[in-house]
Amino acid sequence: MMKWSVELSEFSIKYEPKEAIKAQALADFLIELTSPVEEGSVEETQWIVSMDGASNLEGSGAGIVLEGPGGILLEKSLRFEFRASNNQAEYEALLAGMVLAKEIGATSLSARSDSQLITGQVARTFQAKDPQLAKYLEKVKLLSENF
Length: 147
Description:
- It is built from five helices and four strands.
- By secondary structure, the protein is of the alpha+beta class.
- It has one domain (42-144): 2-Layer Sandwich (Nucleotidyltransferase, domain 5), CATH 3.30.420.
- It has a four-stranded mixed β-sheet.
- Strand 1 and strand 2 (59-67) form a beta hairpin.
- Helix 3 packs parallel to helix 5 (131-144).
- The chain is elongated, with a radius of gyration of 22 Å.
- The termini are far apart.
- The mean pLDDT is 82.
């Protein structure tokens, strides 16, 4: 290090810490994920969201993995600042995954969950009898119109 310091000292190089570039990093990230679309060819690509929500006495949260074409893999974890049942946490995870897919620009989305109740309600094989879960289901239906 000293050798380099001596070598570079003749050039009067000054160190300036780089300022925060959060917005530019996000823009670069989005540019990296999107590919240019050729005119006349609209290719619909399948995205897959896998999620899991959980709740216990210490709190609740969710994990989301969004898989896209070309091996794109986005992972997100959430900690909820409110009390939620396991089923509510599962719905929150689904909604967050759908919002993330929408923001990325996905037009076709497949969801995977280990919750039989949530998948059954979304597939309309189960009824949403709990009023809160019925509200979550309505939000899912509204968001699913984007895909």
